[in-house]
Write a structure and sequence with these properties.
single chain, mainly beta, eight-stranded antiparallel barrel, 8 strands, 4% helix, 59% strand, globular
Amino acid sequence: MAQVAVTYFPFQSVLGVASDTDRRLWGGVNAETNAFLSNVNLEWHGMANLKKGEGVNYYAGFGVNTNPLAAVNSLPLVNGYSFTVGARIKPLGNSRNVQVVFELAPYANAHLDGGTIRTLLGLVYNFRRRGEAIGGL
């Protein structure tokens, strides 16, 4: 099982780190990397694999978008909420640690009076212990 999965969404400048994405339940955090340090938002996710296959995993989950440095300056910690539906595609049969990820992640602000429909396309690498096969709960 993967010890950690690292994702990069180049079109959105987002870097993500997640627990074992092959398990039934997993979690992660995404950080916006193309921003001033005080504007770096962290989005924390809880995900569930809905269908796992040899070539693709489909998943969904909820997230909370936060800005810890804004909270230090007496601004709200929580920016908003998201619901994510995604697919982790394993295009290389002999190296399933390399994946392409596509996510549809509608986002609502903290007051729930506005939001956006986000799409993300990125690359993933699952770091595993040596000799470990892909599997999970």
